[in-house]
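> example.struct
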C-alpha cells in the first residue's frame, strides 16, 4: 500500500502592537487570512497534524510501548544494562521522579500535535471551497483534525490523568498559564471530538489508495468504543462496537503474522496505523529539538527491539518479553511464536548484553523478519518502514466482547471472543477450544477473565497491556503477582507498587515550571 507523505509546515504568526506605525504588515510575512486561501493549504495543514504521532526521538527515545509494554508484566526494558535508558528503568520499576526525560519528550510531543490541530480547526471552516477542497472534503479534513486531537489528548490522559484543556490557538504569553482540567473533562472533550469526527469522516473504502492511513469513520468509531470502555460507559461502547462491526469495512486477516509485515499494512484488519516508510535519512544524534523527532519518516522501533547480537542483526535489545507473558499462551497457540523470538545459544553473541535480568526473549512483531528468519535490511541503520498498528480489527472484536459482557450480553461477547480465537487456531482445530474452556466456567466472571486473557495474548507487545491493567483497576494485584514470578535479579530492581499513585506518571517538572499545576499524588 502507498503511504501518504506528511508535509511539515511552519506558519508565521504576526505579533501586533498598539502603535499605528507598527500595524503595517512586515515584508515577507504571510497573515493567516492570506495563507488559508486554497484547498491544498488545508490538506497540507492536516498532513502536518499527523506528524507528532510518529515522533519517537528527541533528547531520548519515547515510543509509547515503553509504557504500554515495559511498565506492565509483558516486558522488561532490556538494552545493554539496567542503566541503558535509565528513565525507562525508573518507570518500569516504579521509581519515577518528576525530571524523567522520557515523560518530558512524550508530554511535549502530544502538545505539539494538539497545537497542529487547533490552528487549522480554527481556520479551515472559514475557507472558501475550490476544485481541490469541496464541502465534503472540507468536512473530512475537519473530521481528521478532530480525530487527531482526540488521539493526542487520549495519549496524555491515560498516562498523566487530567491535563490543561486547550481547544484554541494560544497567541499571547498572557494565555500561556492554563488550569489543569480533570480527567473526566478531558475524556468528555475526546468523546465530543470523536463524535463530530464520526459525522464528518469517510469510510475506509471511500479513500483512494494513496490516502490509506488517514483517519476514517471506522477509526473514530473504534476510538469511541475504546474511550467509552475507559469511562465505563459500557452501553455506549457496545453501540459503537455494533456500528463498526456492522459496517462490513473490516475483517481479520487469515494469517495472524501478516499483520506485522510490510505487505499487510493498511489491509482489511487495519483500523488505524501510524504510517512509517523507507527513508535513508535519520535525525539520530541530530538537533535535539522536538522538530528532530519528525525529521525522517521511518520508525526507531525496529532497531530498538531487535537483538543486540550481530548474528541476528545488531539491534539494541529493548522491550524484552517476560517469562510470565510466554507462559500465558495456551499449548499450541500460534501467536506465541509469532510474538516472541527465543534465540538459540548460537545466535546470542554476548550473553551479558543479550540476556537482561534473566530474559533472553525478543519482541518479534516489529523486528521485521524475512521468511527465512533473517532480519529485513533497513535502508538506514536506525530507521525502519513498518507501521505502528494502533487499532486492529481483532482489538475491536475484543473490546466489543468486553462491552457485551459488561452489559450482560454474554452470548454476543463469547461470539466476538471466538472470532479471534478461531483465527489463532491456524490449521489445527483441536487447539484453543471455544469458551468455556480450561478453568473457565460459563458465567460472567469467567468470560470476563477469558477476554482479558485473550487481549493479552492477541495484542502482546503492541503497547496495550499496561493501559488495560489500569483501566480494569487491577494493576496492583497483577503487578504484585507478576513480581513473585520474576527472576531474583529482576525482583531486586522493583520498588513496591503503590495503588492510587503508580497508575499515573508525574507531570514533568519542566512543564510544571512553565505552567503551575497540581502534581499527581505521590510525586514531588
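> example.seq
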Amino acid at each position: 500500500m502507498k503511504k501518504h507523505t506528511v508535509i511539515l509546515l511552519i506558519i508565521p504568526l504576526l505579533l501586533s502592537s498598539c502603535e499605528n506605525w507598527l500595524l503595517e504588515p512586515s515584508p515577507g510575512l504571510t497573515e493567516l487570512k492570506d495563507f488559508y486561501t486554497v484547498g491544498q493549504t488545508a490538506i497540507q495543514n492536516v498532513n502536518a497534524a499527523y506528524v507528532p504521532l510518529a515522533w519517537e526521538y528527541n533528547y531520548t527515545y519515547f515510543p509509547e510501548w515503553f509504557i504500554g509494554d515495559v511498565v506492565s508484566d509483558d516486558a522488561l526494558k532490556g538494552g545493554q544494562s539496567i542503566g541503558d535508558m535509565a528513565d525507562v528503568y525508573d518507570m518500569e520499576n516504579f521509581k519515577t521522579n518528576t525530571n524523567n526525560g522520557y515523560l518530558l519528550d512524550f508530554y511535549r510531543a502530544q502538545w505539539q500535535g494538539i497545537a497542529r490541530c487547533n490552528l487549522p480547526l480554527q481556520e479551515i471552516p472559514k475557507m472558501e471551497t475550490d476544485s481541490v477542497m469541496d464541502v465534503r472534503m472540507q468536512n473530512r479534513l475537519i473530521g481528521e483534525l478532530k480525530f487527531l486531537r482526540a488521539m493526542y489528548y487520549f495519549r496524555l490522559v491515560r498516562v498523566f490523568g487530567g491535563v490543561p484543556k486547550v481547544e484554541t490557538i494560544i497567541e499571547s504569553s498572557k494565555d500561556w498559564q492554563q488550569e489543569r482540567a480533570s480527567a473526566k473533562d478531558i475524556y468528555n472533550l475526546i468523546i465530543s471530538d470523536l463524535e463530530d469526527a464520526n459525522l464528518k469522516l469517510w469510510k475506509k473504502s471511500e479513500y483512494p489508495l494513496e490516502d490509506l492511513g488517514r483517519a476514517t469513520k471506522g477509526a473514530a468509531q473504534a476510538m469511541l468504543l475504546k474511550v467509552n470502555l475507559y469511562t465505563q460507559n459500557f452501553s455506549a461502547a457496545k453501540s459503537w462496537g455494533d456500528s463498526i462491526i456492522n459496517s462490513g469495512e473490516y475483517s481479520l486477516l487469515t494469517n495472524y503474522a501478516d499483520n506485522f509485515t510490510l505487505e499487510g499494512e493498511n489491509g482489511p484488519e487495519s483500523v488505524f496505523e501510524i504510517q512509517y516508510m523507507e527513508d535513508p535519512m535519520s535525525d539520530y544524534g541530530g538537533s535535539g529539538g522536538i522538530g528532530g523527532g519528525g525529521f525522517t519518516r521511518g520508525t526507531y522501533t525496529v532497531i530498538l527491539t531487535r537483538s543486540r547480537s550481530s548474528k541476528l542483526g545488531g539491534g539494541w535489545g529493548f522491550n524484552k518479553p517476560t517469562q510470565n507473558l510466554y507462559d500465558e499462551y495456551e499449548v499450541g497457540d500460534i501467536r506465541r511464536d509469532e510474538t516472541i523470538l527465543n534465540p538459540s545459544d548460537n545466535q546470542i553473541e554476548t550473553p551479558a548484553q543479550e540476556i537482561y535480568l534473566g530474559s533472553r526473549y525478543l519482541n518479534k512483531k516489529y523486528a521485521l523478519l524475512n521468511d527465512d528468519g533473517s532480519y529485513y535490511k533497513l535502508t538506514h541503520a536506525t530507521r525502519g518502514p513498518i507501521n505502528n498498528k494502533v487499532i486492529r480489527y481483532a482489538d475491536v472484536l475484543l473490546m466489543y466482547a468486553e462491552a457485551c459482557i459488561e452489559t450482560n450480553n454474554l452470548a454476543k461477547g463469547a461470539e466476538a471472543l471466538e472470532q479471534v480465537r478461531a483465527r489463532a487456531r491456524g490449521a489445527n482445530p483441536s487447539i484453543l477450544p471455544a469458551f468455556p474452556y480450561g478453568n473457565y466456567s460459563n458465567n460472567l466472571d469467567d468470560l470476563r477473565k477469558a477476554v482479558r486473557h485473550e487481549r493479552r495474548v492477541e495484542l502482546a507487545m503492541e503497547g496495550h497491556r499496561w493501559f488495560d491493567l489500569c483501566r480494569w483497576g487491577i494493576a496492583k494485584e497483577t503487578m504484585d503477582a507478576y513480581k513473585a514470578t520474576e527472576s531474583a535479579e529482576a525482583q531486586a530492581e522493583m520498588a513496591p507498587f503503590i495503588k492510587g499513585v503508580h497508575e499515573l506518571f508525574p507531570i514533568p517538572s519542566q512543564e510544571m515550571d512553565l505552567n503551575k499545576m497540581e502534581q499527581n499524588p505521590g510525586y514531588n
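> remarks
Residues 4-19, 286-292 have pLDDT under 50 and may be disordered.
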